[in-house]
């Protein structure tokens, strides 16, 4: 997430992916419109079209030494860098298209670069406007850990009159353009909300250390962002979530949030490594003590000075 000079909102990067490879694709037309709308009238949103046509068909034999083919690496990088996704998905036989599924699968290979990001779907197709494909895509997103906005939904019957697209696949229907803008605004708000989550930003790393009160299995507990543990930034953040804060306050909090989020991740990793080391240390300590006790018993039994025991020992061993 970056910032534009003078802009008061953080800029979210949206990767737009089209499921159709067709030159005059209506769905790619929707993406072109979305890019235009975001440039003209949405502050803080940058949409980049990411072409999936160079991707080879998925074949895990193409993964060599943990590396993917160049086109796949480039695609995965774009997905990784994005804050959110806009899928423009035609419907093929009641589902998503082969090329789209292929692209999704490539970026899902380890590490899954879709994870924990916001997404929205638009579709231009036949009578139901691609609804069935959209619901399949949502189902795929469950495993990918994508978070789709629920509303507004955008289905467009591309073949209904009056015409929705010109012969080059450009969206010419103003009502659809308005609906598209509403969807983009919802995606922007949801992405920012998702990135904000509910952690208390300014003192996250402190609270992580202070409140490691969770069980060993659960790991460290990060304090929830509640009124009780709120610092100065809390109200602006909470108000943002309710949509009432000033824009400068949003920006202030987002910057701090992203720093805090990284810190938490690092601390969590370090915590688990330490726990693992502690477990190994405890095991080796117990092992050493057991060995020492066994050796002591052995020497005690064999000790010449302990006549009673020797007698018992010889007595038992002669039976
Ligand atoms: C193989 C194939 C299967 C299709 N199946 C469906 C379908 O199940 N439902 C539907 O509404 N449209 C279906 N269509 C129509 C496409 O969704 C429609 O042509 C759409 O405009 C294609 O997207 P594009 O213009 O972005 O290429 C199918 C098209 C093809 C080529």
UniProtKB/TrEMBL annotation:
Catalytic activity: a quinone + NADPH + H(+) = a quinol + NADP(+); a quinone + NADH + H(+) = a quinol + NAD(+)
GO cellular component, one term: cytosol
Enzyme class (EC, first level): oxidoreductase
GO MF annotation, one: FMN binding
Domain of life where this protein originates: Eukaryota
InterPro entries, alphabetized: Flavoprotein-like_sf, FMN_Rdtase-like_dom, NAD(P)H-dep_reductase
Domain NADPH-dependent FMN reductase-like: from-to ranges: 12-158
Transmembrane segments: 280-302
Keyword vocabulary terms for this entry: Flavoprotein, FMN, Membrane, NAD, NADP, Oxidoreductase, Transmembrane, Transmembrane helix
Cofactor entry: FMN
Statement: the UniProt record of this protein carries the keyword DNA damage: no
EC number(s) per entry: 1.6.5.2
Family according to the record: Belongs to the SsuE family.
SUBUNIT field: Homotetramer.
Function: The enzyme apparently serves as a quinone reductase in connection with conjugation reactions of hydroquinones involved in detoxification pathways.
Record protein name field: NAD(P)H dehydrogenase (quinone)
């Amino acid at each position: 997430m970056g910032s534009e000079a003078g802009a008061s909102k953080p800029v979210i990067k949206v990767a737009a992916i089209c499921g159709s490879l067709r030159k005059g694709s209506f769905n790619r037309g929707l993406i072109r419109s979305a890019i235009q709308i975001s440039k003209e009238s949405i502050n803080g949103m940058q949409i980049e079209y990411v072409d999936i046509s160079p991707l080879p068909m998925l074949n895990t034999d193409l993964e060599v030494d943990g590396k993917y083919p160049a086109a796949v690496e480039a695609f995965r990088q774009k997905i990784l860098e994005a804050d959110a996704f806009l899928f423009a998905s035609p419907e093929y036989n009641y589902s998503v298209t082969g090329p789209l599924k292929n692209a999704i699968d490539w970026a899902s290979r380890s590490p899954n670069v879709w994870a924990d990001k916001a997404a929205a779907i638009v579709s231009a197709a036949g009578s139901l406007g691609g609804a069935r494909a959209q619901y399949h895509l949502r189902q795929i997103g469950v495993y990918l850990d994508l978070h789709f906005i629920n509303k507004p939904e955008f289905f467009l019957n591309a073949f209904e009159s009056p015409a929705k697209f010109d012969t080059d696949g450009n969206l010419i229907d103003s009502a659809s353009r308005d609906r598209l803008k509403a969807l983009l605004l919802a995606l922007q708000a949801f992405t920012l909300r998702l990135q904000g989550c509910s952690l208390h930003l300014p003192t996250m790393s402190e609270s992580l250390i202070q409140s490691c009160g969770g069980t060993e299995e659960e790991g460290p507990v990060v304090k929830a962002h509640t009124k009780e543990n709120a610092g100065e930034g809390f109200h602006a953040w909470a108000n943002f979530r309710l949509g009432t804060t000033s824009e400068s306050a949003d920006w202030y909090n987002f910057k701090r949030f992203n720093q805090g989020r990284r810190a938490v991740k690092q601390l969590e990793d370090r915590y688990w490594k330490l726990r693992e080391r502690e477990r190994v240390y405890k095991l080796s300590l117990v092992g050493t003590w057991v060995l020492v006790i066994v050796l002591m018993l052995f020497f005690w039994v064999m000790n010449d000075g302990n006549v009673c025991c020797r007698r018992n020992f010889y007595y038992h061993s002669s039976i």
